[in-house]
Write a structure and sequence with these properties.
It is built from 22 helices and 30 strands. The strands form six sheets. Strands 1-30-2-3-6-7-8-9-17-18-22 form an eleven-stranded mixed sheet, with helices on both faces. Strands 4, 5, 23, 26, 27, 28 and 29 form a seven-stranded antiparallel sheet that branches. It has a six-stranded mixed sheet with strand order 13-14-15-16-10-20.
Length: about 775
């Protein structure tokens, strides 16, 4: 099918080929039109997603859905992401600003084209406003600001305030000593930071007021010396909550200056996270870097706005903005009759940054210092140069100014190199007080005093091990430079290392095929599950329900396959044993608070602490060894019996009918579904649930909360998978859990879901002849 459109803002004609999955291949005659074309098809595919992200970033989602979004909008206003994004654009170099301006022009060309708007606009009763260059920066920030460490520090502080320093000191969420690091690939964690009891007591004293106040991905590169082709293979899957539509959007843009394909955020020019340019392929995972600090600011209640500094009292900046809040909408109420309520929001800023939690008028509040908003963000200068690189070393060099988030950048090139770089702004601090909790802002002892130099950031090309693995684990064995206090549980990383080392083969004589390396994305073997099974094989027998559960689990191989009965029982056991270990330490009320919340950051505390428990299991003895004062022979029967009962309640009395996938499924919801269910249900905006294997400890991730429920709905999973065999880079592949289109009526709204479910991928058509052969639709855009 051939279509032609004339649009203002183009410099020359450009062609858009769509393949059978709707992926757009934009072929332009100049760089300006390449960005224009990328934006035009992004708006065509995902305009409502652009609208949603822009409004969330600027604190305007309440205008659409009402009071349900007011808390989020208030926080967005407090973080002042819009002001920061505008400052970023003002500081851009001329070529980078031209890139963002061309992108904005492409979005606006769609708005002016007369093409239909997504159905959500009619349901919401709004029309789109023009896109501005700074909106792209704001969109990127809102997608990352809560991925930083400040929610984690706040959660830890709240827990400390609830349970006190003595109990908190008995919880250890740091990576276990000896667990895997990224560099060197065969290295292990060394413990370098210890918080003493007195430090915890002081933190608890300072953080008592918090009790009243209201972070993963995999990637790996295998060198050609370990593959059948003699060239590297690069794989990744990015983990986030499942959005509708998916957060990532696939596209291919070509012009005389570059030719790149991959995935990006709709609304963002370039390929900051995933893609290849025919010479170099790259992907990222979250580095878990500590690039956000919370400062406790002490305000004078008698003189609102005055806060304590080392030099005395200073006056905070204060201004008021108004959030327009839509009323509840009924199906028979015309859009024009919806009158909005104005809700004023006070915005404060101290020398450390914006106040994000608490009310200065009450005397204490928290200010956020964040690399992405600390000063005009120069990260956008990296986007254009990285598309023209020819080697891994050149790619690393383009990342000098990257700021946020701190990423593990893994790459490979057709010359045979593989590389790793920690990219991003890592602050140098004058103290260690910030590492776990908010720190006092009035002493002058806890300040940022510099940035880790690019040359000191961990990086390596062609490590001797022959592979690179990142799964949000600790990056280097020690603490110089300091990157973070906490990282993700090392379980996923250690399983990928196990696969990459080829424990059952000699990779020199029996190298990996690219297909084998790609297959690791589907691995559902849990190393923690195997450790628990090993312990259960060394204890007992018990009696009754505890022994029935133990008998089933001792034959479990740790593979959380979708159809597995043992996987379901193990998952209930995992919850029950965590409760048995930690509830006596923190108390029942704190345990209920921690596990009853929807806040995934709170649940992550348990996950990190459990990693240290699992690390002790290989040598544990049921009768003599203990956890928090309780022997395993006291803990295990209670947890096993409870798990057996919970599994029967959830899945029935017949274990032969139990299935992990019946209780472990996606639960994605369109952002409008809760507010406008009459539209969302009628139009099929929310996709069907999909059963998934694995859990938060497996390479094929399917994370769930620790909440005591009959099911284990996923809260984090793979939202983008990519495989690039550098021996035939033009045949790379990718997939997302949904489709490129965000329009519910489009055939490409969910047409990749089955491939994603079955851990297969769709082709990245790259070579011109392949793009032409695969095209099922062609659109030509011509200047007016």
């Amino acid at each position: 099918m051939m279509t032609e459109l004339r649009l203002a803002g183009l410099h020359a004609s450009l062609t858009i080929h769509r393949d059978s999955f709707g992926v757009a291949h934009v072929r332009a005659e100049n760089e300006h039109d390449a960005w224009f074309g990328q934006a035009f098809v992004a708006a065509l595919d995902r305009l409502w997603q652009l609208e949603y992200d822009r409004r969330r970033a600027t604190g305007r989602w309440s205008e659409v859905v009402g009071r349900a979004a007011l808390a989020g909008d208030t926080l967005a206003r407090r973080m002042q992401l819009g002001r920061s994004a505008q400052a970023d654009v003002a500081a851009m170099s001329a070529p980078t600003r031209a890139m963002f301006e061309a992108y904005a022009a492409g979005v606006n060309a769609y708005l002016q084209s007369g093409l239909p708007l997504p159905p959500e606009y009619a349901a919401a009763g709004i029309t789109p406003e023009p896109w501005e260059p700074w909106h792209s920066c704001a969109l990127f920030k809102i997608r990352h600001v809560l991925m930083g460490v400040w929610p984690q520090k706040l959660a830890q502080a709240q827990l400390l305030a609830r349970i006190g320093p003595d109990a908190y000191a008995r919880l250890d969420g740091r990576p276990p000593i000896g667990s895997a690091v990224i560099l060197p690939p065969d290295g292990a964690v060394k413990r370098t930071f210890e918080a003493g009891a007195e430090e915890l007591r002081e933190a608890a004293r300072q953080l008592g007021f918090l009790d009243s106040l209201e972070g993963g991905s995999n990637s790996w590169a295998v060198h050609g010396g370990r593959t059948t082709t003699g060239k590297p293979v690069l794989c990744n899957d990015s983990h986030r909550a499942l959005d509708v539509p998916s957060v990532y959007w696939q596209v291919h843009i070509t012009c005389p200056d570059f030719d790149a394909i991959g995935a990006t955020f709709p609304g963002m020019p370039g390929f900051p996270h995933f893609g290849h340019n025919g010479h170099v392929a790259w992907n990222i995972t979250h580095a878990c870097g500590d690039y956000q600090d919370l400062y406790i600011e002490q305000f004078d209640r008698e003189r609102p706005g005055h806060y304590q500094t080392p030099a005395g009292w200073a006056e905070a900046q204060l201004w008021t903005e108004r959030i327009m809040v839509a009323p509840d909408k009924t199906p028979d109420q015309p859009n024009g009759e919806r009158r909005h309520e104005e809700v004023p929001v006070e915005l404060w800023r101290t020398r450390h940054g914006p106040i994000v939690h608490g009310d200065p008028r009450d005397g204490l509040a928290l200010a956020l210092r964040y690399t992405a908003t600390e000063e005009p963000n120069r990260a956008w200068e990296c986007l254009r140069p990285m598309l023209g690189v020819r080697t891994v070393a050149e790619l690393h060099e383009t990342q000098r100014e990257w700021v946020d988030p701190a990423n593990n950048l893994v790459s490979a090139d057709i010359e045979g190199n593989i590389g790793y770089l920690t990219r991003g702004y890592l602050p140098i601090r004058s103290s260690e007080a910030h590492r776990q909790f908010p720190a006092p802002g009035w002493t002058g002892e806890n300040e940022w005093v510099g940035r880790v130099a690019f040359e000191r950031l961990p990086q390596e090309i062609n490590p001797a091990a022959g592979y690179i693995v990142t799964a949000n684990q600790q990056i280097i064995p020690g603490d110089d430079p300091y990157i973070a206090h906490d990282f993700s549980s090392p379980a996923r990383a250690e399983r990928i290392y196990e696969l990459a080392r080829g424990a059952d083969r000699d990779v020199n004589t029996d190298p990996f095929t690219p297909q084998e390396i790609a297959s690791w994305q589907a691995d559902v073997t849990s190393r923690p599950a195997r450790a628990w099974v090993s312990l259960l094989q060394r204890v007992g027998p018990y009696t009754g329900e505890a022994e029935r559960a133990r008998a089933m689990l001792v034959t479990f191989d740790g593979a959380l396959l979708a159809e597995s009965a043992a996987a379901l029982l193990y998952s209930f056991f995992r919850r029950e044993i965590a409760r048995g270990i930690f509830e006596p330490v923190m108390g029942a009320a704190a345990w209920i608070w921690l596990t009853g919340s929807d806040d995934t950051t709170l649940h992550a505390i348990i996950t990190r602490c459990m990693a240290n428990v699992v690390d002790t299991l290989d040598k544990a003895n049921g009768a003599t060894d203990s956890q928090n004062g309780q022997s395993w022979n006291a803990l295990l029967p209670v947890a096993l019996a409870a798990a057996w009962r919970r599994t029967m309640q959830a899945a029935g009395p017949d274990p032969t009918l139990w299935s992990w996938s019946d209780h472990h499924q996606t639960n994605a919801k369109h952002p409008m579904a809760l507010c406008f269910p009459q539209h969302a249900q009628a139009e099929g905006w929310t996709p069907p649930r999909v059963p998934v294997g694995g859990d938060g400890d497996t390479v094929q991730v399917g994370s769930y909360l620790w909440r005591d429920t009959p099911d284990f709905p996923l809260v984090s999973l793979s939202v983008y998978r990519q495989v690039v065999d550098l021996s035939r880079i033009e045949h790379a592949s990718f997939v997302i859990p949904g489709g490129v289109s965000g329009v519910p009526s489009s055939p490409h709204y969910q047409d990749q879901l089955e491939a994603w479910r079955t851990r297969t991928r769709i082709p990245m058509h790259y070579a011109p002849e392949a793009v032409n052969d695969a095209a099922v639709e062609t659109v030509t855009l011509r200047p007016v």
